[in-house]
Amino acid sequence: QVQLAESGGGSVQAGGSLRLSCVPSGYNAEVLRGTSMGWFRQVPGKEREGVAFISAGSGRRYYSDRVEGRFTLSRDVGNNKLDLQMNNLKPEDTAMYYCAAQAKNWDRKSLPGPRNFASWGQGTQVTVSS
Questions:
Q1: Closest by alpha carbon to 39, among 92, 4, 84, 106?
Q2: Which residues, in sequence order, are CB contacts of 39 under 8 Å at separation 6+?
Q3: Three-point CA angle 21, 126, 26, nearest 5°
Q4: Per-residue pLDDT of the chain (130 residues; tens, 9 = 90+)
Q5: Contact 60, 53 (CB under 8 A)
Q6: Who's near 2: CB < 8 A, 6+ residues apart?
Q7: Inter-residue contact 14 to 89 (CB < 8 Å)
Q8: What is the DSSP code (8-state) at residue 29?
Q9: Hey, which of 65, 85, 86, 126 has its CA 20 to 30 A from 11?
């Protein structure tokens, strides 16, 4: 398993921006390059929801319809980071955001689910007020 650490969460008003970062710890950049990674979010009482993902092989990005056009996923292999730039935030984006890595059995035809990932971070809270 890869240990993941998220940062960048916080509180903003609707229309604002935040940038989340995910950094693997205890491993070098080769692990990041070789694994599909992404972000999920979850609010209390609801299932964990896929937000944005990057395929290790092609580098292709996959986004939820709810964030397409507002969120941008980027991977910095040199600095060993996976960032999620979130613009034009809405109150419905309020959630705990989790970084996930080491996807398995993901067919790339749709967004992966939580069960496709072996490694998780502890989460970072994003709160958007209206």
A1: 84
A2: 20, 22, 50, 51, 52, 53, 73, 84, 97, 98, 99, 100
A3: 30
A4: 678 899 999 999 999 999 999 988 765 546 666 789 999 999 999 999 999 999 987 889 999 999 999 999 998 877 778 999 999 999 999 999 999 998 889 999 999 999 999 889 999 999 999 9
A5: no
A6: 24, 26, 27, 31, 35, 101, 102, 118, 119
A7: yes
A8: H
A9: 65
